[in-house]
Amino acid sequence: MTPRENFLRTVRFERPESIPMTFHINAACWHHYDPNALQDLMEAHPFLFPDFQRQERVEPVYELNQLKDKPYTDPWQCVWETTDDGITGSVHQHPLLNWESLAAFPVPDPGASDGTYPVDWSALQSRVEQQKRDGKLVCGGLPHGHTFLRLQDLRGYENVIFDMIDEEPRLNTLIEMLADFNLGVVNRWLELKPDMMSFPEDLGMQVGPMLSPDNFRTYIKPVYERLMAPAREQGCIVHMHSDGDIRTLAADLIDGGVEAINLQDLVNGIDWIADAFAGRTCIDLDIDRQTITPYGTPAQVDALIREEVEKLGTKKGGLIMIYGLYPGVPLENISALMNAMETYAFYYA
After folding, report:
1. Residue 79: helix, strand or coil by DSSP?
2. CA-closest candidate to residue 44, choices 336, 344, 263
């Protein structure tokens, strides 16, 4: 069974051979850790890094909004800044703080960008065609923060929340602008016939969501449904990511068309995730980066992965797991986590 087939069977509850596991190393890690130590760990875990090739000198690739002390202006005229190469920055200049700027505000061209970065669709098509020739899973979608977070980038968080509470009519105009643009990106992706379309956007805080469930249903959910509908109609898997506590929004996300949901484990609670999704909706579990992996013992790291696999997985499938490594996690815990992910990937085999 190829990794692509295994992934598709997992999402569709069709008895995959293993739990798909992804270990993502953030680019900033290469100047926070000894690069050789990280490469040693990657080399020792071929299941997680099947295409790994050791390099004499690792040259990480930083996105345009991940460059220290180099502000980046995105296609929506939002200005990003970061203090560490490789760590995605935050928007420090919001171009629509004043509604007076809306009438003449320039909307980006979805034929030239995805809203966050420039896009060469011709080059992207060539890359997708190569992925298909190689039998790999093709994943398309919108950039992280495409709707609700983009509103914050443009207006500022507090302004957006007050706009919703005040039922500001110009907010609807702005949302429509964003939706039309994002639909242009979605349609261009769908022309490439991907296996899965992802709609990543953080909605949660440490406790509770960043907007009320009522405001989510009024302003954001209809946009999600509009953007996801063409993917569902084409037969693509609809994938949604959100960091934070999204328990009060989860039912609306699934109702809106999400088939695979990527959410954080301990913030939402393993038992709650099991009750809400296990056996019905594919769980793409974002493994803890706040407590156990950075501050626990290797034994606790192993126990966490085993507990999650036992409570959320089944032989039929429905569980994917991903870990994002950022600076600050001890090397012994990184090793324990890689070991556990490789071991428990075959728990139901």
Report:
1. strand
2. 336
pTM above 0.85, yes or no: yes
Q: Is 116 helix (H, G, I), strand (E, B) or coil?
A: coil
* 12 Cα distance to chain centroid: 20
Q: Measure the CA–CA gap between 225 and 233, rounded to whole angstroms.
A: 12
Whole-number Å distance between alpha carbons of 297 and 336: 9
Measured distance between the N- and C-terminal CA atoms of the chain, rounded to whole angstroms = 13
Instruction: In whole angstroms, give the CA distance from residue 154 to residue 173.
Output: 13
DSSP one-letter code for 345: T
**Beta strand pairing status for 79-81 and 72-73?**
antiparallel
Three-state DSSP at 139 gives strand
Task: Note the pLDDT of residue 53.
Answer: 95
**How does DSSP assign 248-300, residue by residue?**
TTHHHHHHTT-SEEEEEHHHH-HHHHHHHHTTTSEEEEE--SSSHHHHS-HHH
**Structural domains of the chain sorted by starting position, each given as residue range(s) with its CATH number in brackets:** 3-344 (3.20.20.210)
Collect all residues with Cβ–Cβ distance below 8 Å to 317 and sequence separation of at least 6.
9, 10, 11, 12, 13, 14, 15, 16, 282
How many Å apart are CA 316 and CA 92, to the nearest integer?
46
pLDDT digit string (tens) for 8-48? 999 999 999 999 999 999 999 999 999 999 999 999 999 99
Question: How would you classify the pairing of strands 72-73 and 90-93?
Answer: unpaired
Q: Nearest 5°: CA angle at 218, between 170 and 209?
A: 105
Cβ pair 260, 281 in contact under 8 A: yes
C-alpha 113/C-alpha 52 separation (Å) is 30
User: What is the DSSP pairing of strand 282-286 with strand 196-200?
Assistant: unpaired
Residue type, 198: S
CA distance 35 to 28: 11
CA–CA dist 146, 199 (Å, integer):
8
Asked whether residue 257 carries a pLDDT value surpassing 90, the answer given is: no
